[in-house]
């Protein structure tokens, strides 16, 4: 059996009477990249804050790196790294000053700290900016600096709360390459996101909605088990067709993508192409491979409108 | 542990040196306030606007007016013909007082000089009593000698009780105000700086990262305080230096005594700011709470009014405030040449306040967000 980096049973957090996280069970194996996928307000940040010991769970147990979190927070904090959603280093300090500060706080001896900071500057491509004030840097640079600070003490477990929300696609790719580097060195990474393409890169994934875990597994497993098949319809007047199809109980969702209509059909209807044929009045039909977005849509109550790619708010 | 404290201190100083506005305030607040208050606050009342109602219009009355003018307490800006007009002028705020000289002022003066038992005063003052300082100043003129008015040689009688004044023979209020300003300005800047220091980190999101590191609350608190101790001493230097040059405030006691008293007070004020910062959620709240502490520190600490004159309850409240204890020590050291060793009670009190405050702040500051 693989060792678990994070293990929770019934982890719950109430804010007043509102359940931000509702009996979440997690089992995240060491050395993997695990994603929390969900719209804003689904409990991703709250979960991460409980796992880092910043919030006390209202109920449930948490084990981190093989130890119970409760009572061992201080000791465990030396072994975990945390990159907050909002940039949390000092904007009026230079890049190296920020990193040196973090090194001193972590008690890294001076000489070692100097080497480590130099190493991180090279690794995260900040050598040219080392004298710049953190506040004057671009989103991508800030994010790299934050990752450098969070990994300065070489944590075994790294929490990243929506790390790429202020970053362009180019920088996001680069960023994920760094995460896989860290993972290859043995770091377990827990990352929250609302980007489907990012979620697809994770080894394991939990889809959260309103504090409840709707699905859990590798992206491949999730797509295989989603309980619906995907058909793309091409032709004219797709808006009217969409209206008609969404009234069918077997249609979980219909969303237009360019000149095609992507329709999710319950898999208990048998062959979806045959089932749809009489309904579409001579338009073209093609069954396609499901995407993670389809999984997300089926998991989160199969609403008529799938969450948009960029940011998905709970309606 | 110390390397972490040092890291916070260095970080705090770096941030401070890049914050030009705050940096300017550190110097400008004491400078501007000292100059402003040094010249403006004056309890030696002079040149009050006054009127005279001279019903006698004799050489006696003119001599009396001249004698009153010579005291410089009032400036007779108007001549009014009756008491009614004087009352109206006081009500309208044109004058603060009016001297009413009766028709028979000559006879009254003669009776006065012949040593008769006085049944009637020589003249009468009408005073706007709404400002007690004005009223008591005019009251001070009640026992004005009348010999010169009558052209007699000055013959000052022996007073019943003789008064010997120590430490401020010229009775200049500025001598008392400058050491007091030390307390007021330090309360204002020290409490505010630290109150805002931690709340700002929370507001800007730095705290969420910081509390997932191994730093201990006590280390963070200590690291936040030390840079401002230096700032506090810079301000003490400015106030005393300028006070000495500009207002000739003597510094009688030893500078080492003063430095020790200032250090104790700065520490107490800083910990008070820390306690505020663990209660306040936003910088605005922190500032409001600072004002809540600042006002009693100005009004009850003995800066404005003598501590001994306040009612018992107000004295208890003012005993809680660090400013009261520092005000007492600063005036004792600067004006009366006392030494810290003689001021044990205030020293212990400030020390205790600091330790309790630091403990409360460290306990209240939890490394959690809930």
UniProtKB/TrEMBL annotation, chain A:
Keyword Nucleotide-binding listed: yes
Gene3D superfamilies: P-loop containing nucleotide triphosphate hydrolases
GO MF terms held by the record: ATP binding
Keyword ATP-binding part of the UniProt annotation: yes
Residues in ABC transporter domain copies: 6-235
Pfam families linked to this entry: ABC_tran, DrrA1-3_C
Protein name, as recorded: ABC transporter ATP-binding protein
Organism, as annotated: Pokkaliibacter plantistimulans
Lineage of source species: Bacteria, Pseudomonadati, Pseudomonadota, Gammaproteobacteria, Oceanospirillales
TrEMBL record, chain B:
Protein's UniProt keywords contain Ribonucleoprotein: no
Compartments it resides in: Cell membrane
Key words, A-Z: Cell membrane, Membrane, Transmembrane, Transmembrane helix, Transport
Membrane topology field: Multi-pass membrane protein
Superkingdom per UniProt: Bacteria
Residue stretches making up the ABC transmembrane type-2 domain: 131-368
PROSITE patterns noted in UniProt: ABC_TM2
Stored InterPro entries: ABC-2_transporter_component, ABC2_TM, ABC2_TM_bact-type
Transmembrane residue ranges: 21-41, 177-199, 225-246, 258-277, 289-307, 347-365
Record family assignment: Belongs to the ABC-2 integral membrane protein family.
The protein, known as: ABC transporter
Organism of this sequence: Pokkaliibacter plantistimulans
Organism phylogeny: Bacteria, Pseudomonadati, Pseudomonadota, Gammaproteobacteria, Oceanospirillales
């Amino acid at each position: 059996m693989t060792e678990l980096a994070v293990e929770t049973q019934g982890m719950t957090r109430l804010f007043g009477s509102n359940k931000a996280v509702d009996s979440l069970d997690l089992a995240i194996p060491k050395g993997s990249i695990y994603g929390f996928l969900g719209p804003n307000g689904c409990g991703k940040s709250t979960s991460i804050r409980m796992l880092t010991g910043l919030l006390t769970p209202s109920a449930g147990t948490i084990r981190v790196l093989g130890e119970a979190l409760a009572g061992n927070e201080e000791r465990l904090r030396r072994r975990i790294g945390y990159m907050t959603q909002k940039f949390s280093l000092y904007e009026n300090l230079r890049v190296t000053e920020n990193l040196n500060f973090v090194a001193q706080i972590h008690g890294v001896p001076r000489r070692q700290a100097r080497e480590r900071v130099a190493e991180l500057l090279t690794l995260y491509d900040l050598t040219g900016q080392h004298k710049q004030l953190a506040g004057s840097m671009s989103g991508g640079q800030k994010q790299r600096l934050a990752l450098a600070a969070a990994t300065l003490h070489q944590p075994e477990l790294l929490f990243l709360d929506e790390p790429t929300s202020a970053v362009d696609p180019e920088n996001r790719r680069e960023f994920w390459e760094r995460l896989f580097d860290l993972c290859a060195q043995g770091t377990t990474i827990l990352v929250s996101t609302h980007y489907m393409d990012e979620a697809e890169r994770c080894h394991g994934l939990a889809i959260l909605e309103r504090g409840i875990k709707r699905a859990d597994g590798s992206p491949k497993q999730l797509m295989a088990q989603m309980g619906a098949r995907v058909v793309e319809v091409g032709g004219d007047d797709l808006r009217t067709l969409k209206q008609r199809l969404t009234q069918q109980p077997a249609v979980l969702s219909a969303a237009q993508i360019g000149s095609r209509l992507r329709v999710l059909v319950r898999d208990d209807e048998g062959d979806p192409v045959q089932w749809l044929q009489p309904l579409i009045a001579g338009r073209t039909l093609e069954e396609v491979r499901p995407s993670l977005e389809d999984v997300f849509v089926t998991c989160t109550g199969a609403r008529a409108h799938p969450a948009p790619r960029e940011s998905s708010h709970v309606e | 542990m110390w390397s972490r404290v040092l890291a916070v201190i260095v970080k705090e100083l770096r941030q401070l040196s890049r914050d030009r506005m705050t940096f300017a305030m550190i110097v400008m607040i004491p400078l501007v306030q000292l100059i402003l208050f040094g010249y403006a606050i004056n309890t030696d009342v002079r040149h009050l606007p006054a009127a005279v109602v001279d019903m006698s219009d004799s050489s006696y009355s003119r001599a009396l007016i001249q004698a009153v003018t010579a005291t410089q307490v009032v400036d007779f800006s108007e001549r009014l013909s009756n008491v009614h007009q004087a009352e109206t002028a006081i009500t309208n705020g044109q004058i603060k007082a009016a001297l009413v000289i009766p028709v028979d002022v000559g006879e009254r003066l003669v009776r006065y000089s012949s040593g008769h038992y006085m049944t009637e005063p020589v003249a009468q003052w009408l005073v706007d009593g709404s400002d007690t300082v004005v009223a008591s100043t005019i009251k001070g003129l009640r026992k004005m000698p009348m010999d010169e008015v009558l052209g007699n040689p000055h013959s000052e009688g022996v007073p019943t009780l003789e008064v010997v004044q120590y430490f401020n023979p010229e009775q200049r209020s500025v001598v008392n105000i400058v050491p007091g300003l030390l307390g007021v300005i330090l309360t204002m800047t020290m409490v505010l700086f630290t109150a805002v220091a931690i709340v700002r980190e929370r507001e800007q999101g730095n705290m969420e990262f910081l509390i997932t590191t191994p730093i201990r609350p006590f280390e963070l608190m200590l690291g936040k305080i030390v840079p401002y101790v230096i700032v506090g001493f810079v301000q003490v230097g400015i106030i005393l230096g300028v006070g000495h040059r500009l207002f000739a405030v003597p510094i009688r006691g030893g500078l080492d005594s003063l430095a020790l008293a200032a250090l104790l007070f700065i520490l107490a004020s800083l910990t008070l700011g820390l306690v505020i910062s663990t209660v306040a959620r936003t910088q605005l709240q922190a500032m409001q709470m600072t004002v809540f502490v600042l006002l009693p520190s100005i009004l009850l600490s003995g800066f404005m009014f003598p501590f001994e004159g306040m009612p018992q309850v107000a004295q208890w409240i003012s005993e809680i405030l660090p400013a009261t204890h520092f005000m007492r020590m600063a005036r004792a050291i600067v004006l009366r040449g006392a030494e810290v060793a003689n001021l044990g009670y205030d020293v212990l009190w400030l020390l205790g306040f600091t330790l309790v405050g630091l403990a409360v702040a460290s306990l209240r500051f939890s490394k959690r967000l809930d």
